[in-house]
Specification:
Layout: H1 3-34, H2 36-39, H3 46-59, H4 61-82, H5 85-91, H6 96-137, H7 141-144, E1 157-165, E2 171-179, E3 188-199, E4 205-218, E5 232-245, H8 267-296, H9 309-324, H10 336-402, H11 409-433, H12 439-462, H13 470-492
Antiparallel strand pairs: 1-2, 2-3, 3-4, 4-5
Helix pairs in contact: 1-4, 1-6, 3-6, 4-6, 4-10, 4-11, 6-10, 8-10, 10-11, 10-12, 11-12
Length: 493
């Protein structure tokens, strides 16, 4: 390796490492402040918290790495320009691309490493981080019940309170509890003006004492004719006790894992899941189409076992005569009672088919959204790694043009560029989530917008073009102003 390459890489490594770890720490603090109520005061050992922060810091690498590359490249090339080292290198016959070559090689290796990290490390880190956070927050569910938010940590129940107060935050106001233990939806609702909660001494049950409330419970009659009456049971109470089983929260293994989400899978697993979801969706659509065809297809109303030609001719003549005597209005061929029954049955069948179609359409749309989220995650693993290269091609020539090193101007410029990149990338990703854009367009548009800008900046810097000289951009306006000033003087003369 030549002396120049070692010099440039050595100048790059120090700000890169410092910036990278500072950004990871900064982003980690955002996570801590967001979930501090779920982590503190639950009697959890410190090493569980440290393990959670370690896994979370690993998930923040894809966001911190591009910013570190951007800031470091601006600082290094800006320092070379500020100390006239870049001018000395160019005067000796070395171009900007020759100076950037060792950094470009390092960034390419870093981009490949970022993809491998995103493919093999981050899914595992997301899995352990999410499960640790969920298990820690569920360690003491009484503390997880927050005012104004539905708490669903207890299986079969949704609990919402308007306020918590008292020395131990155990006094409640305006309590709303949905009971889903029968797996039949929101059939039972309990409302109370106030209440008090406590955990039993053996920590196996959470007891909530309700005051001045009532409960509603919808009933489903066995007879169909009674269902239109929509019967329900209402009961009022002055005091009532509800006991929730906390046996699921007593496990000492906070590292137990649950179901894997899309961000907990690597590329191979994402491909397998997407293929499985597509196959399941195709099967459901085929089954739906077959059922709808079976409902509306014309079928033979009756069959005859008559094999002799005379019997068949008699049936055909009777059918032809009946059809000839039928009225154009189909209902006019039936009695009044039969018309009413036909209309009721037709309306019921049409409503049932519409409800079936609406439910099937909603299910298909939900499955398509799930597939889209998996494909977006697949594209994200590649686009986030490629963004390291894109931001390098913006930062390196920009530093050579600005010619300012240190932590002043480079930090301001790099943070502004990174915010623009992050906001546009996140906005386009949301368009992909809502299926307004394809996953490729959603995850790659931000990079494809900034990449030509990076090439343009590299060209301008290599040709020593002055693009931040305000006088250059003010010349057209000065010419227009001079023209108006000249005409104004002529009028006065």
């Amino acid at each position: 390796m030549k002396i120049l390459d070692r010099f440039v890489l050595k100048s790059f490594f120090r700000p890169f490492l410092i910036t990278f770890f500072v950004m990871v720490l900064f982003l980690l603090m955002q996570f801590v402040w967001k979930y501090i109520d779920d982590l503190v005061g639950r009697g959890v050992e410190w090493y569980y918290i440290a393990e959670l922060l370690f896994y979370t810091s690993a998930t923040l690498v894809p966001m911190a790495l591009p910013l570190a590359v951007l800031l470091s490249s601006i600082m290094v090339l800006g320092t070379l320009g500020e100390n006239y080292e870049m001018a000395a290198l160019k005067s000796s016959g070395l171009s900007l691309m020759r100076v950037m070559r060792p950094l470009l090689g390092f960034v390419l290796i870093l981009s490949v490493a970022a993809f491998l990290f995103a493919n093999y490390v981050i899914p595992v880190a997301n899995l352990h981080s999410e499960n640790l956070r969920r298990n820690i927050s569920n360690k003491k569910p009484a503390l997880s019940i927050r005012p104004g938010i539905f708490y669903t940590g207890i299986a079969g129940y949704s609990i919402k309170v308007s306020d918590k107060y008292g020395p131990n935050q155990n006094l409640l106001d305006e309590i709303l509890i949905y009971d889903h233990t029968q797996n039949n939806g929101n059939m039972k609702v309990i409302i109370a003006d106030s209440g008090k909660m406590k955990v039993t001494d053996n920590e196996q049950f959470l007891e909530i004492t309700l005051y001045d409330g009532h409960s509603y419970e919808d009933m489903v009659p066995k007879k169909r004719k009674d269902r239109d009456n929509k019967p329900f049971i209402r009961s009022d109470f002055k005091e009532s006790l509800i006991r929730f089983n906390l046996i699921d929260f007593q496990s000492d293994d906070l590292r137990k894992t649950g179901q894997k989400e899309f961000d907990m899978l690597n590329v191979r697993q994402l491909n397998e899941v997407v293929d499985s979801l597509h196959q399941s969706l195709d099967e459901l659509q085929t089954d739906f189409a077959r059922q709808m065809v079976d409902k509306y297809a014309q079928r033979e109303l009756y069959r005859t076992d008559l094999d002799d030609k005379e019997g068949i001719d008699t049936i055909q003549l009777d059918t032809a005569g009946a059809i000839a005597n039928m009225s154009e209005n189909l209902l006019d061929n039936f009695d009044i009672e039969e018309r009413s029954r036909i209309l009721q049955n037709s309306t019921r069948i049409a409503r049932g088919n519409r409800a079936y179609f609406t439910n099937a359409s909603a299910q298909y749309n939900w499955r398509k959204i799930v597939i889209t989220r998996h494909v977006l995650e697949w594209q994200k693993k590649f686009s986030s790694s490629f963004s390291v290269i894109v931001l390098f091609f913006i930062g390196a020539p920009l530093g050579a043009i600005i010619r300012k090193g240190g932590m002043g101007m480079p930090v301001v410029v790099s943070v502004f560029i990174f915010i623009v990149h992050h906001v546009t990338n996140f906005s386009f990703e949301k368009l992909g989530r809502f299926m307004l854009w394809t996953p490729f367009e959603a995850m790659w548009t931000a990079n494809l917008i900034l990449l030509p800008i990076g090439f343009w900046l590299t060209y301008k810097s290599a040709t020593d073009s002055v693009i931040f000289n305000m006088e250059l951009y003010m010349k057209p306006f000065q010419k227009v102003s001079a023209l108006f000033e000249k005409r104004f003087k002529k009028k006065q003369a």
